[in-house]
Task: inverse folding
């Protein structure tokens, strides 16, 4: 018995270790991403793993003789090395040729991936270039990371200056949530949004527009950022109106929204009789009365002479 008990304890311990190792592997696999660094011709230079949310600041830059590193590029687009990583990515280092004159600092200007360089003599200021233009954007200035560069300072090393822009418009996206589709409009920042035409959805009432946090949108407030408005709906309650023509021609049942009225009442025909009115529970039915439940209307006739 003691021997069997020892064996069971060993087996249980081994199972616990396996579960622990599996859990650790699972956690590691779900909190790390692979970064593949490839050359301009697509050949692999390096592959590494970084934690979820880390950035490229501490990634070693492959050296290229006669060149200086400018930026990381992903799918042809410049990547800010301080941006957090939340997926597996493949990046390429972009370089600019190192000038032969060593008494100069190389100043690189990056305009949405378009690279221009300026050689600045040691001890002199950078000549500020002409502000770049970008359709429907306002140029904010030249930045190093998140800091606006001061052109009155004298650089003491090679620099990469990034052109930053701000959109001149805001995008409003309307999610019709099962309605007739999704559409967008663009407005100026700090302006008011005009409420669009009420959308429709079969079998539902439109209730309101809500923001991403499910709060009702206030059209009296100025818009300061891109937003998505989602249509909220409430199902329509229907009631059934049955027409008993009392021996006359057959009239189809009508389904109408609860609380509404019958706009047009059908006129039945019966040979030898003239139709007078519709009756509900023995009383003449008035079509301007809202209907909130299923009803049966009976035709009342007068016999012809």
Result:
């Amino acid at each position: 018995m003691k021997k069997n008990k020892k064996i069971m304890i060993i087996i249980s311990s081994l199972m616990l270790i396996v579960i622990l190792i599996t859990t650790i592997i699972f956690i590691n696999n779900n909190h790390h991403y692979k970064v593949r660094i490839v050359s301009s011709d697509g050949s692999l230079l390096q592959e590494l793993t970084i934690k979820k949310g880390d950035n490229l600041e501490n990634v070693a830059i492959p050296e290229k003789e006669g060149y200086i590193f400018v930026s990381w590029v992903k799918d042809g687009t410049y990547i800010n090395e301080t941006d957090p990583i939340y997926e597996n990515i493949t990046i390429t280092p972009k370089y600019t040729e190192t000038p032969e004159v060593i008494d100069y600092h190389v100043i690189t200007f990056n305009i949405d991936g378009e690279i221009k360089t300026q050689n600045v003599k040691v001890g002199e200021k950078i000549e500020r270039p002409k502000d770049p233009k970008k359709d429907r954007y306002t140029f904010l200035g030249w930045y190093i990371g998140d800091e606006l560069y001061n052109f009155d300072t004298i650089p003491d090393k090679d620099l990469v200056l990034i052109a930053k822009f701000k959109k001149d418009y805001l995008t409003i996206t309307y999610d019709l949530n099962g309605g007739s589709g999704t559409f967008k409009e663009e407005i100026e920042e700090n302006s008011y949004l005009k409420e669009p035409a009420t959308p429709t959805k079969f079998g539902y009432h439109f209730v309101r527009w809500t923001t991403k946090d499910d709060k009702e949108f206030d059209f009296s407030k100025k818009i300061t950022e891109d937003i998505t408005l989602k249509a909220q709906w409430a199902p329509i309650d229907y009631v059934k109106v049955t027409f008993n023509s009392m021996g006359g021609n057959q009239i189809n049942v009508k389904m109408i929204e609860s609380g509404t009225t019958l706009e047009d009442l059908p006129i039945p025909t019966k040979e030898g009789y003239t139709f007078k009115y519709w009756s509900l529970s023995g009383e003449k039915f008035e079509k301007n009365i809202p209907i909130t439940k299923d009803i049966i209307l009976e035709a009342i006739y007068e016999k012809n002479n």
In short: The chain has a mean pLDDT of 87. The radius of gyration is 37 Å. The first strand starts at residue 32 and ends at 38. The chain is about 10% helix and 45% strand.
